[in-house]
Amino acid sequence: MKGVFSGFLHALDVGRRVIVNLLFILIVLFIASVLFVGGERHASIDDGIAVLFDPYGLIVEEYDATPLDRAIGRLTGSDIPQVLLRDLQAGLEFAAHDARVAAVVLDLGGLAPVSVSKLNELAPALIAARANGKHVLVYADSYDQSRYFLAAHADEIFLHPMGGVFIDGYAAYRVYMKEALDKLSIDWHVFKAGDFKSYGEPYERNDMSPQVREETAVWLGELWSFYRERVELARALDAGAIDVYLDGMVDGVRAARGNLAAYAEATRLVDARTDYDGFVARVTELVGSAPEDEGFRGLNWQAYLGSARQEHAQTLVGRDRIAVLIASGAIVEGDPGLQAVGSQRIAELMEQANDDARVKALVLRVDSPGGSAFASEEIRSEIQRFRDSGRPVVVSMSSVAASGGYWISMAADEVWASPASITGSIGVIAMFPTFPRAMERLGLNTDGVATTRLAGALRADRELGNDAAMLVQLLVDGIYGDFVELVADARELEEATVLELAGGRVYTGVGAHANGLVDELGGLDEAVAAAASRAGLAEYAVRVLEQEPDFQDKLMLALLESRVLTPFAERAARVNDRPLAKWISWVERELGWTVQFTDPKKAYLYCFCTAP
Questions:
Q1: Cβ-based burial of 5 (10 A; exposed 0-12, middle 13-18, buried ≥19)
Q2: Active-site residue 343, yes or no?
Q3: Which residue is catalytic, options 118, 192, 197, 554?
Q4: Which of 304, 322, 410, 603 could connect to 299 by a Cys-Cys bridge, CB 3.0–4.6 Å?
Q5: How do residues 399-451 score in pLDDT, each as one tens digit?
Q6: Per residue in 282-322, pLDDT tens?
Q7: Candidate list 403, 409, 418, 425, residue with the active-site label
Q8: How many CB atoms lie within 10 A of CB 342?
């Protein structure tokens, strides 16, 4: 009995080990498959298909969350809908030149308002698609100003019968708080260099100053002219047709019995009024039906882009590279994550470019209104070190490259801007509140002793003394002098000339080019080509510098994308879908970056000039 029992235990132990080892092997194989194979399936691209582009959310230069955070967000319902501009642009460009693609189809119903400078980078691919004999069709339930800019480049524009084309021009309004601050007995101290540096105006005035009003009218007018001219050209409308549409809207909609869609069709802004099913039927006429009559024959743009990139990657093996560094968001010190341009993160990304022997040139893509003066100089110095190695640097300005965004651009051999970019704002500002008067009204008093006149001089609960105020202004003036000198050296201009252009003045890309603040007008593709030319490269690959996830993040990302953890996320998704949770998330995104402004001198190169 003892031998039988012992044999049974031995067999049980062997069986346990076999099962554990098998499970371990299966886990290893699963991890290897999700990490190295990834389960990624590339779609087959058949002849004569349509590619459907249905971007949802914001078009951005860079995601504001890591791949892992985005994957978790998708599963929990707390993700922020975003589309990378370079992905959308690449998909359109591949489709425009792909002989297998018969039609490029755009559904713009989910597209959030986006600056015209970004949309202008997508337009050439649509123009090329039409030139190559492909049908370009677009649909939306309604078109706002940004959607219509893109739609105007299509062969056929479809609109829901109850929709409309809502074009209203550009405007720049701010809330001015001087009277409110006085009523609250709060003293808001603003120190600036440059009469046109308007970021602090709402705290000093109850209205827009005359000089800022005049300047703003200029750059808004240039943007509006750009928009109208590009739309009228793309749509083959008479010059001034957009203004005629706006000026006649009241009478035109009245004549159409309150139907804005009918008015848009009557003025040739759209080709047909139909619902989405009618639009699908039109595309089906061109490319045929999908199997089992599920819509038209085609692919979604993301599936198509994955396959097209895989095919294209084979031609890039072993080539020298142009590195692209994205600087998107407010400029701050350290590494605040992807929602701002952190000096530490930029330095870490630049290490990748410096260590990669195949990187022969760098393109700095700037989409920033500025931020910390200290962090701006740290970033500019990092870019300059790369340039000092003998490799060229070219800047490509996106929607905004102003103030600190313009400062970091001064490390370049060549600067490109979109005609609709917002740039310049060469000026410096420092500001902070004090509220001893408010405390006094509440019966609160601050008292104490100090060893020097400056000790405790910048406390918010004390009046600002003359010495402290003079010191802050001197620091601001000093940084402004550095800014002007930096621009003069980088742009090879006289300092007197830069002073005439500076003062915080804001320019469009067109205005900046006319005044010598940028070298050329064009988008990212043109900037990359210019960098390749300077590096003497006829053939090259483009490498976007990004922080690579570590092994743990890669594993989690693979698990999430394989839907293994989907059941565990369902409850979190229901919680995060509540309106309050979404509102809190929005507040965190909009206001969270302000706490990262930690410039040691409290001096900022920031422009309140969001690109329309």
A1: exposed
A2: no
A3: 197
A4: 304
A5: 999 999 999 999 999 999 999 999 999 999 988 899 999 999 999 999 999 99
A6: 999 999 998 876 789 999 999 999 999 999 988 888 899 99
A7: 403
A8: 26
